Amino acid sequence: MKNTTKEPLWTAEFTGYGISSSVFYIVQYIMVSALPIVITLSYGGSAFDAGMAMTCFQIGCILCRPFAGELIDSLNKKKMLLFSTGLFFLITAAFNFSPSVEFLFIYRFFQGMLFAIGTTVVATVAVLVLPNTRKGEGIGYFAMFVNIAMVIGPFFGLLILDTLGDQALFIACAMIGLIGFYAANRKPLPDTLAIAKPRGNKAWNLARFIESRAFPWALMGLFMSFTYSGILVFVPIMMTTMGIGTLASYFFVIFAVTIVITRPFIGRIYDYYGASYLIYPGYIIFILAMALLSMAESAVGIFIAAPILGLGYGAIAPAFQTSSVQVIPSERAGAATATYFLFLDLGVGLGSVLLSMLVSAFNFNIMYWINTLIALIGLLLYHFVVRSKAKVNIKKL
């Protein structure tokens, strides 16, 4: 075994990037949970308007994601951090000045663009400042910041909206964005990592923006995020139809807390033994938990599935992300990260649409059974295709 405890992990830079990443997702989760209510109650909008706000965000995000990696690899990363986090703060603050719902659509579109660029650059530089011997552990902790945001965002967003109103909600989002700007830039990235390496004049083609060597892991990320969308989007709706919608937030608390508790062990397993020692058991656990969710008929069944889902998802998600960048040269780290995140965006988008069709045609139980089969296909894809394609090595115990 390797000694992975000598090089420091929690440096000022890494901690700042983790906090900044969390801020991006806290603001996004606040918007996802609270903005539809603001649109319908404060602006007199329809359910279509509420959905359109999310659509505008996703369009902006998907349009910018492929170009984000090339920008990061070509430009000074220190300046990219400054501008992406600064502009994200400004567009978030702009929500305080929205005379109509149409302005909210415009703000959400640009917020999606800056979210795509900002999360990509923060994730890229976080990987670059990690010691090579502790990348799996470090990326696991970095992903933990997002898991924490998943709990904090909806909880505090709805709390502020309910107690103080929509204006206070937008002010709070702006203040959170300012914290992210400070956290990302308070400790400047060293010039050795910030300055882009000369790469000559490259042709403007798809290969410049998409890192093909990250494809195997990006494809696994797509399968993972597709099935994950069934949890993120439909568990609250299913619990509402059961008459227990007020308990939905506790499901995600249990889910996220399980990920946070297991994160230190997950990262070390990756660094010591390799990706497959996480992916095989993690995927099997995730599949079993999805099957449990498909059979759930009460809050008890759903809450039993929550920590098991968290354990499985918490193992495979950081393993895929770490593997997608670990074999890529540092000068293409941005493109690899953008490629992986693009496939995640596509997985969530496709899953939200296709799984909703299954719910409409059948019911939640059937949808989760089919989602279980899709997760099983993902595991088989890893075993028979991706593992050999990506040259995954299972290290000896």
Automatic annotation (TrEMBL):
- CDD domains in the cross-refs: MFS_YfcJ_like (cd17489)
Pfam name, any one:
MFS_1
Name the Gene Ontology molecular function terms of this record. Answer: transmembrane transporter activity
Tagged with keyword Ion transport: no
- Enumerate the UniProt keywords alphabetically: Membrane, Transmembrane, Transmembrane helix
- According to the lineage, what is the superkingdom? Bacteria
* Record's keyword annotation contains Oxidoreductase: no
Q: Tell me which InterPro entries the record gives.
A: MFS (IPR011701), MFS_dom (IPR020846), MFS_Exporter (IPR052714), MFS_trans_sf (IPR036259)
Domain (Major facilitator superfamily (MFS) profile): residue spans on this chain = 9-390
| TM stretches of this protein | 23-44, 50-68, 80-97, 109-130, 142-161, 167-184, 214-235, 247-266, 278-296, 302-320, 340-360, 366-386
Query: What is the protein name stated in its UniProt record?
Result: MFS transporter
